[in-house]
Amino acid sequence: MQQPKPTSTKTRIAAIGDIHVQEGDAGKWVDFFKEVSENADVLLLCGDLTDTGKESEAEVLAEELRACTIPVLAVLGNHDYEHDQVKKIRKVLAQTNLQLLDGNFTVVGDVGFAGVKGYGGGFDNHMLGMFGEKLNKDFVQEAVTEALKLDAALAQIDSDDSAIKKIAILHYAPIKATVVGEPEAIMPFLGCSRLEEPLNRRGVIAAFHGHAHVGTLEGETSTGVKVYNVSRPVLLKAEHPTPYYLLEV
Ligand SMILES: [Fe+2]
Ligand SMILES: [Fe+2]
Questions:
Q1: pLDDT for position 59
Q2: 1, 42, 47, 214: which sits with the fewest CB atoms below 10 Å from its CB?
Q3: How far is the CA of 212 from the centre of ligand 2 (A)?
């Protein structure tokens, strides 16, 4: 889907993850969405849009989004799956200016945004392999599938126009560096290196993710692709000057 071209030649990308909207949050996000609309051309929401994955929480978010006048691109997070109401959440959010990405992409100006939720599995030499019980294999397969979806979405951007800059939106982390700060024991559940390979091979400029609430704001892949953990608690802990991360490309 082609969004309107921003007025400036550069595209100002605002990003935040883990807003965890609750039923009692009516009015809480209005100022945030107004401010970000003035300072950015597009807003990325990196999953855990709702606190417990209820349709009623998505309805509160939909109402808050009326204050947002720029395109919003989002992926779902694990919390959005908690009550098995993803279909209903998608339907509610489809009525807003938020576009959910799940293995597809959208273009704003000269930037293509590919989005997937991603999944866990661990990092580098400690990544879980396809071995043993079926449940184990299913766990690994989910990460493989998400990585393939990300790769396909990035490839599609290239085939449409190879001059377009590429940005990835994820919930789970693609590298270990941006989950550092979390307990080692839970790292396999925070992301997976399988998500890193498409970022490197497809020449992505930057990837944004959330999920690791006490992780690290900035890192990079083995080939130097910038990775930002924009989880709301991470931005707050880093005393970031704005309540969202802002990147101009
Ligand atoms: Fe979260
Ligand atoms: Fe999460």
A1: 98
A2: 1
A3: 7
* pLDDT score, position 219: 98
Q: State the distance from the centre of ligand 2 to the C-alpha of 163, rounded, in angstroms.
A: 33
As for how many domains the chain has, the answer is 1
In a domain, 2, yes or no: no
Residues in Cβ contact with 132 at an 8 Å cutoff, skipping those fewer than 6 apart: none
For residue 163, with 0-12 CB atoms within 10 Å meaning exposed, 13-18 middle and 19 or more buried, which class applies? exposed
Report yes or no on 105 lying in a domain: yes
CB 34 within 8 A of CB 56: no
pLDDT of residue 9: 83
Cα 161 to averaged position of ligand 1 atoms, centre (Å): 34
Question: According to the model, what pLDDT value does residue 162 have?
Answer: 78
CA of 113 to the centre of ligand 2 (A): 20
Q: What CATH number does the domain containing 81 carry?
A: 3.60.21.10
Amino acid, res. 129: G
The bound ligand whose nearest atom lies closest to the alpha carbon of 76 is 2
pLDDT along the chain (249 residues), means of 10: 61 98 98 98 98 98 98 98 98 98 96 98 96 96 98 93 93 98 96 98 97 98 98 96 96
Is residue 189 in some structural domain?
yes
- Residue 220's DSSP bridge partners are 226
User: Quick one: pLDDT at residue 4?
Assistant: 57
Q: Tell how far the Cα of 180 is from the centroid of ligand 1, in angstroms.
A: 16
pLDDT at position 119 is 98
d(CA 243, CA 234): 10
Inside any domain, residue 178 = yes
